[in-house]
Every structure is written in C-alpha cells, then in structure tokens.
Amino acid sequence: MKLLDIGEVAEATGLRVSALRYYEEKGLIEALGRKGLRRQYGPEVLQQLALVALGRQAGFSLDEIGGMFGAGGAPALPRAELKTRAAAMRDQARQLEALAQMLGHVADCPEPNHLDCPKFQQLLKLATRAQRRAT
Questions:
Q1: What percent of the chain shows pLDDT beyond 70?
Q2: Which residues, 6 or more positions from 120, have their beta carbon under 8 angstroms from its beta carbon?
Q3: Residues 68 and 116 in one domain
Q4: Distance in Å from the first CA to the final CA of the chain
Q5: How far is residue 56 from each of residues 35, 39, 64, 90, 99, measured CA to CA in Å?
Q6: CATH of the domain at 52
Q7: Residue 90: pLDDT band with limits 50, 70, 90
Q8: Mind listing the pLDDT tens digit for each residue in 113-133?
Q9: Which residue in 2, 40, 47, 62 has the fewest CB atoms around it within 10 Å?
Q10: What is the total count of domains within the chain?
Q11: Which SMART domains does the record associate with it (predicted)?
C-alpha cells in the first residue's frame, strides 16, 4: 500500500496542511506514520476527507462528523438525523426560491415604487409568514 504524504493529501483535497493536522487532532483522520517530520496517510484518507466535506456542506459540526465515523473510519451514519437535516435543507431551499422570485420581481417590476406593487406586497406577506414559521 502506497502511503500519501501530507502534502499530497493537501494537494488532492484542496485543504491546507494545517487543516489536515487539525482534523487529525479531532480524530477525523489518522496518520499511519511519518517520513521524517511529514505525516503519512493511507489512501483511504481521501474518502474520509470527502465524507468530512460532505458532512460540512450538510451543516454538521466536526464533532458531529467525528461521531459518525465508526471503527476504522467507516461511516456509522445516524439515519434519523440525516433525514431531519435533509428536510431542513428542503425547507431552506423553498425559502431561497421564494426569495429569488422576490428579487427577480423587484428587478423587473414596472412600478416606480416597489411598495406600490401588489405582487411585491404579496411576496412580502409570504416572507413574513415564512419568518414566523422559522422562529
């Protein structure tokens, strides 16, 4: 098995070497040895780092992501939590789509004052309702 130098891992993932050291400190990845002063990793570290990146994009903290790694770094995914996060992301996507529609309308609205536009007023009411639901 060919080990990857910390610099190779950084280049392959786009992460800084300092981030890799931090991830190792947090227990997210593990160096298999050293060559001189440079850490060496197994090729599976690239997949582990891809899982970390995916977890970060989904809004999980590094501690939460660390809790998802089982023995040997294999994922032990909390499916109920993943479903909850997925539902929250869908809700956020709907809110962002409504906001995008509002901004698009504001940009194209023929009214000189947007507050005089009935459609803009309707969109403001929808945004207020969405805000109330979020709190």
A1: 94
A2: 102, 105, 106, 109, 111, 114
A3: no
A4: 52
A5: 30, 24, 10, 17, 24
A6: 1.10.1660.10
A7: very high
A8: 888 888 888 878 877 877 777
A9: 2
A10: 2
A11: HTH_MERR
